[in-house]
Automatic annotation (TrEMBL):
Transmembrane segments annotated in the record for this chain: 58-75
Function: Accessory subunit of the mitochondrial membrane respiratory chain NADH dehydrogenase (Complex I), that is believed not to be involved in catalysis. Complex I functions in the transfer of electrons from NADH to the respiratory chain. The immediate electron acceptor for the enzyme is believed to be ubiquinone.
Topology in membrane: Single-pass membrane protein
A GO biological-process term: electron transport chain
Chief location of this protein within or outside the cell: mitochondrion
UniProt GO cellular component terms: mitochondrial inner membrane
Keyword Transport found: yes
Family assignment from sequence similarity: Belongs to the complex I NDUFB3 subunit family.
The organism's place on the tree of life at top rank: Eukaryota
Keywords, in A-Z order: Electron transport, Membrane, Mitochondrion, Mitochondrion inner membrane, Respiratory chain, Transmembrane, Transmembrane helix, Transport
Protein name: NADH dehydrogenase [ubiquinone] 1 beta subcomplex subunit 3
Entries under Pfam families matching the protein: NDUF_B12
């Protein structure tokens, strides 16, 4: 067995031949003070693209349809008679 393989087995990962450590770089970078894309991305969450407006516009006409359906059910219950269905389908249908 070669000595280099023994050293690599101890560290548990393959060393970078350039000496660049991505973990150290990410840690030193931290969170940027100013995001240059922040203004370009802001439109996605405001105005007509806000969460409420996207939900509200997902089903156009649902509110009007619900009110119309409830009004029809009320009209049917109050004004349309349902006398015929209690008789059955006997001799009276000639």
């Amino acid at each position: 067995m070669y000595p280099s393989r023994i050293l690599r087995a101890q560290h548990g990962e393959k060393p970078n031949i350039t000496g660049f450590d991505i973990r150290k770089f990410a840690h030193s970078a931290g969170q940027p003070r100013y995001d240059p894309w922040e203004r370009a991305e802001a439109w996605r969450y405001t105005g007509q693209f806000s969460r409420w407006n996207r939900f509200k516009n997902a089903f156009p006409g649902l509110g009007i349809a619900t009110v119309a359906f409830v009004a029809y059910l009320g009209y049917e219950k109050l004004f349309l008679s349902d006398d015929h269905h209690g008789d059955g389908h006997g001799e009276g249908h000639h």
